[in-house]
Amino acid sequence: MQVVLGLIAPPGEMSLLLPSVFANNLTTLRLAYFGIVLIWFALTGEADVNSLPNTPAADTWNFYVGYTPIDSISETLIPITFLPTGDIDTRVTSNTSLATANNILAPTTDLIRTITGDPQFDIWKLFNWIVVSYYWIFLFDLGQTAPTYYNWTPAALPNFTAPVRFTSQNNIFVNDTLFQIYSSYLLETIAPFLKRYEPSLVIPTFLPLSDNNSLNSTNQVFLRSYACVERRLKGWISATVSVLVADYAFITGFYSLFILCAGWWQRGRKNGTRKPQ
To answer: What's the number of domains the chain is made of?
Structure first.
């Protein structure tokens, strides 16, 4: 996964999105996934803000292409709705939005097709595969195979009394049909692509999912710590030592100056150049 992302946006190197930025005279171009989407509802002339979950665990989820023209300061977000199978849901995604996104990303798509040698390379399947794979892997790092969502507004805390629980039916590591789709894409599209850049890459093989070969929820332990500082008065011995150590340079400096002056005065008296008054 990191290798795939490294090819799209290599750290410290040119991103594959830059050709699209230059070709469309953009100041920004980003690909985004928002786990929670805010929706504005107009109620009696006032704006009320609620949130809706945006998760691959649902029957559809949204991926966004955000761009800012060079003569504008506002970003435009184009939603692309995906089905659990990785296909674009054309019932929700408008033809206009999809055409705009394709036109903006056309230079990047052409570059990827040149690199992979596949003139039919579908960039949307790649974006879907990256987000969905990351989503379920990160969720399982927390011991879960399905997410739980709590509605919230900026003016209030999440409502923990009314959780919205999703099932694991769209989890690609639980649903065997989806697992075959995503693992096949990895083996047939991603792996040959990576093999060009990592010749030593070992292409894995996967067994079909079963009761004994799938992810299950597990209990995870969170470790929490904090730094505690309590100010207390030091004892007189400890305080004296601390002051003497801190002021050692000043004390030795004044002492050396005193010795120098006293020695100079004493030598003057012995030579007779200074007489006591």
So the answer is: 2
Tens digits of residue pLDDT in 71-97 = 988 999 999 999 999 999 999 999 999
Q: Are 80 and 88 in contact (CB under 8 A)?
A: yes
> Do 177 and 260 reside in the same domain of the chain?
no
Identify the pLDDT of residue 81.
Answer: 95
As given in the structure block, the two tokens for residue 230 are 């309590």
Q: Which range of residues forms the domain containing residue 52?
A: 2-197
CA dihedral 27, 29, 35, 38 (to 10 degrees): 50
pTM of the entire predicted model: 0.71
Q: CA-CA distance, 54 to 51, in Å (whole number)?
A: 9
Q: Let me know if residue 86 belongs to a domain.
A: yes
Taken in order 271, 272, 273, 277, the sign of the CA dihedral is positive
Across residues 172-196, what is the average pLDDT?
89
In angstroms, the CA 1 to CA 108 distance is 19
Q: Are residues 191 and 81 in the same domain?
A: yes
Q: Examine the pLDDT at 271 and tell me if it is beyond 70.
A: no
Q: What is the DSSP letter of 235?
A: P
Tokens of 98: 């999809």
For residues 193 and 240, membership in a common domain is answered with: no
Q: Clarify whether residues 131 and 260 are in a common domain.
A: no
Helix, strand, coil percentages (3-state) for the chain, rounded to 5, are 40, 20, 40
Strand ranges for the chain from DSSP E? 26-32, 36-43, 46-53, 61-69, 76-82, 148-150, 163-165
| 156 and 265 housed in the same domain | no
pLDDT score recorded for residue 48: 46
CA geometry: angle at 81 spanning 183 and 29, to 5°? 95
**Range with the largest mean pLDDT of 37-41, 102-106, 215-219:** 102-106
